[in-house]
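re: ur msg from earlier - yeah i can do the adenosine-5'-diphosphate complex, just paste it... oh wait u already did. ok heres what im feeding in:
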Amino acid sequence: MKNKIEKALKNVMMIDNKNIVESGLVKKIDLLNNEIQIYLILSNPTMHIKNRLIKDITHSIKNQNILNTIRIKIEIKSNIKIKPKNIIAIASGKGGVGKSTIATNIAVSLVQMGFHVGLLDADIYGPSIPLMFHIENNSGNLQHENGVINPITSYGVKILSIGFFSKDGQAIVWRGPMVTKVLRQFIHETNWGGLDFLIVDLPPGTGDIHLSLLQEIPLKGIVIVSTSQKIALSDVNRSVGMFRIRSIYVPILGIIENMSYVFSKKTKEKYYFFGKDGVRDFSKKMNLFFLGEIPMLQNIRECSDLGIPVVIENEYVRNIFIKITKNIINQLDK
Ligand code: ADP
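and the outut:
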């Protein structure tokens, strides 16, 4: 009987293509008279991952022709104490669509709404969060206490960037496993305090790093940023596909259309630079929630360059971000 169960468990795969026995997740199997009890330890114990594992394990055991009358009890526990309540990742298909700008201003909007917020810049290809908060020269102030990192606080947001650990102008050429190790440390060995939200600025696109990140970090959901341009959306399509792979399945909270239009004060008309309603139509097609649109504004670019989150300065943009941020919170509650 135990052999049959072990065989069944070996058919349940994790994202890295290892089965749950091989990965060392199965800690104990108890056989009682009419009950099988299985105990698992996981570093990423979000509800959707737990539910998927319970479903897959039950299905796989039933396939081994084990009596229907036997009950299967599965207990999944975490080996890590996760402090942030809600970890939300901001993703994009392409670079340059405004992902970091939006991560920055959602984080500051959450602070303005009274939440405790952290921002983790995991964009190894172009960590721009230090520039957006004008703290690019502050990495020297990062303090470690007993191996625990203290983040830098700016505009009320606790910030940690992978860019703090590379010299200006130097590329980060870590391989996937190294990045995963560093990011794990950033999440679990950082003095975040009690956070309501931790926003993670992901690298653009799809790749090894995303896969290991998604496995490592217990995400509550993903927010996708895109422009309406066809090539930007075709890359988003790939990202959505990745997040929806059965073994990953992270809920996508919705999609934001950035640089939707330019408003001309002279003609009082909107000009749809990247095409009109591209993201809105895409969201309908892909069954994604449309979180809102952000116009292309010179002041947004200027504030980024000055290292001031635009929602601090510009009331019009602040109201747009507050609306989008409220939509994200509503989607989380669903
Ligand atoms: P990503 O993180 O996707 O690579 P960034 O957030 O770094 O993109 O944005 C790229 C550039 O575009 C930045 O200079 C930023 O200031 C600018 N930008 C982003 N969104 C807007 C917008 N809505 N209006 C004007 N400029 C924007």
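cool cool. Residues 92, 95-101, 128, 258-259, 294, 296-297, 300-301, 304 surround adenosine-5'-diphosphate (CB under 6 Å). ping me if u need the other ligands too
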